[in-house]
Recover the amino acids of this structure.
């Protein structure tokens, strides 16, 4: 107890409640950095000793004499009033209680603070030994992503898989990391990915629209953090697979029909994709003519293209697509292409072959789903894992970036492929529910505002369909064992229906203005003190040297054993990857469930 006395920084004052306490700072603490400090106090509840832990979220100085107009005039002339200035200052702090513990038979157990301790109760800084003692029962589940804000104490967090058993939450939940460029959100997301990778029974799917995760998980470092993401995950016994668009084999005629519409092949024939009904009829005619006579994986030849054009040129199909006059124009355009070898070759090489290659087979190509083929499982099969298997599931990255897919890339293809992948994942996870087996899959979506933007989208467009799919997914898939992890530079740019379903959120620097701040206020329940502390975050790019940089975050949700009350928590993320690996003993360590 003597050690704690040396760490005393305040006493509980008035007014106070069971969730937020007013502290009177002691003289020796008035020159310390206290905002964000992790502190605790001891009390008794129902005859049992308890310890409550929380963070100081604000400090206010008052000197009632200096507030008097007479004394202000004196200060204006002399700068101070010796008996009053400084000596009569009082500093009060606001302590938000995050968690309360009571002594149980097997260690400290979580408790609810259902009383207010008396004034004068000593409040002391939390040190690492005390924190380790309080959380000894959970030690195997704890991960450290950084230190408590304005503290040298490691801030404990946990990231559980979505199944049952050791280290499992028993259900899925959705996460989000948000912050402006340079706020450290990518570095934090990578450390969180490492935390989830400790659970071999959790399949991890990364949707990568920028190519950053694809490079990192292939051994190429991006940015200044330097965390060896691929080695960390592989040292957990997790295989890593990176698939680009050219590595994925699509395998059904319905998708082929959709692709020749969305990838604008029909525009070469004078059928604009915005004429949705006409394009659909043309695609249906081409599919019907090819499906019975050609293999889906062998369509990328000039002869098949000629057969497809002849199908459009057929009188019955042309009049099915357009009225009589427009049908004649369509036939004439198709005939010009068929009669001009150069035009035919251009359509073949620039429009037809790129689409058909999405359906060709190859030794390095994977189907999205290939049930019943354990020798060559599809991507979704790999993620979900075979029944009764104990080996670790892989980390699968789908690189849909432009730079990673120079030949096979368009926004429409990106959205169409992503929509098909997620539809299959959701349908297979739904099927697994009948066997009472959780899918246990985390889907990480980088640059989430690209796929689920706020605002109006053209009805029935690929963008609108993808956003609708993600809306439905975050509402319905939690019970199937699929958790969604969104990373974005913006809150205001992401669809609000999706944001409302997120359970764990981390906010880095740069969201303190306009609509961003309005949404931030909603997530913290209008907590004024927490918002003021968030607004005090310093821009990480404003530090003169990299070794001085801090990457502060505010987090909301059940992300820590110190966050039982649901109040926001504040921490500073690690900037040194070696420190992250050392304190988590993560290299070579595996968690079995």
């Amino acid at each position: 107890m003597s050690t704690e006395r040396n760490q005393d920084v305040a006493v509980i004052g008035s007014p106070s409640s069971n969730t937020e306490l007013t502290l009177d700072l002691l003289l020796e603490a008035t020159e310390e950095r206290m905002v964000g400090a992790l502190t605790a106090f001891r009390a008794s509840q129902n005859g049992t000793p308890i310890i409550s832990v929380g963070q100081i979220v604000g400090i206010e100085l008052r000197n009632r004499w200096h507030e008097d107009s007479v004394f202000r005039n004196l200060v204006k002339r002399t700068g101070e009033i010796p008996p009053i200035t400084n000596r009569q200052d009082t500093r009060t702090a606001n302590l938000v209680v995050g968690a309360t513990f009571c002594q149980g038979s097997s260690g400290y157990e979580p408790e609810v603070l259902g009383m207010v301790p008396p004034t004068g109760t000593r409040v002391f800084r939390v040190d690492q030994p005390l924190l380790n003692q309080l959380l000894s029962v959970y030690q195997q589940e704890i991960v450290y992503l950084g230190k408590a804000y304005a503290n040298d104490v490691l801030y404990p967090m946990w990231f559980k898989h979505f199944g049952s058993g050791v280290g499992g939450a028993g259900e899925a939940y959705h996460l989000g990391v948000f912050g402006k460029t340079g706020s450290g959100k990518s570095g934090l997301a990578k450390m969180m990915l490492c935390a989830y990778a400790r659970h071999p029974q959790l399949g991890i799917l990364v949707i990568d629209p920028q190519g950053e995760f694809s490079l990192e998980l292939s051994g190429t470092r991006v940015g200044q953090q330097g965390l060896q993401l691929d080695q960390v995950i592989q040292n957990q016994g997790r295989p890593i697979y990176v698939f680009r668009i050219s590595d994925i084999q699509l395998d059904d005629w319905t998708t082929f029909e959709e692709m020749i519409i969305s990838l604008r092949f029909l525009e070469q024939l004078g059928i604009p994709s915005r004429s949705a009904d006409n394009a659909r009829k043309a695609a249906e005619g081409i599919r019907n003519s090819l499906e019975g006579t050609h293999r889906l994986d062998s369509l990328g030849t000039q002869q098949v293209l000629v057969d497809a054009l002849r199908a459009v040129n057929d009188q019955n199909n042309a009049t099915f697509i357009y009225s009589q006059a427009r049908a004649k124009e369509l036939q004439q355009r198709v005939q010009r292409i068929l009669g001009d070898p150069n035009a035919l070759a251009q359509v073949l090489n620039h429009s037809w072959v790129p689409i058909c290659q999405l359906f060709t087979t190859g030794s390095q190509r994977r189907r999205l789903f290939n049930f019943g083929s354990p020798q060559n499982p599809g991507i979704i099969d790999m993620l979900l894992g075979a029944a009764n298997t104990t080996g670790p599931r892989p980390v699968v990255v789908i690189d849909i970036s432009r730079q990673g897919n120079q030949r096979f890339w368009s926004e429409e293809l990106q959205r169409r492929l992503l929509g098909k992948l997620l539809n299959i994942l959701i349908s297979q996870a739904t099927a697994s529910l009948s066997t009472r087996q959780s899918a246990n899959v985390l889907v990480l979506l980088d640059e989430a505002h690209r796929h689920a933007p706020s605002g109006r989208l053209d009805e029935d467009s690929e963008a609108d369909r993808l956003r609708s799919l993600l809306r439905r997914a975050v509402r319905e898939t939690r019970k199937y064992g699929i958790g969604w992890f969104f990373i974005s530079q913006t809150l205001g740019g992401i669809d609000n229906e999706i944001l409302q379903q997120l359970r764990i959120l981390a906010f880095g620097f740069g969201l303190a203005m306009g609509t961003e701040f309005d949404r931030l206020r909603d997530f913290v329940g209008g907590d004024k003190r927490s918002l003021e502390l968030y607004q005090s975050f310093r821009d990480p790019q404003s530090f003169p040297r990299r070794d001085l940089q801090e990457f502060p975050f505010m987090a909301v949700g059940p992300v820590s054993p110190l966050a039982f009350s649901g109040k926001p928590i504040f921490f500073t993320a690690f900037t040194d990857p070696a420190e992250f690996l050392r304190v988590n003993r993560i290299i070579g360590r595996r968690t079995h469930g």
In short: DSSP finds 20 helices and 20 strands in the chain. Residues 1-5, 588-593 have pLDDT under 50 and may be disordered.
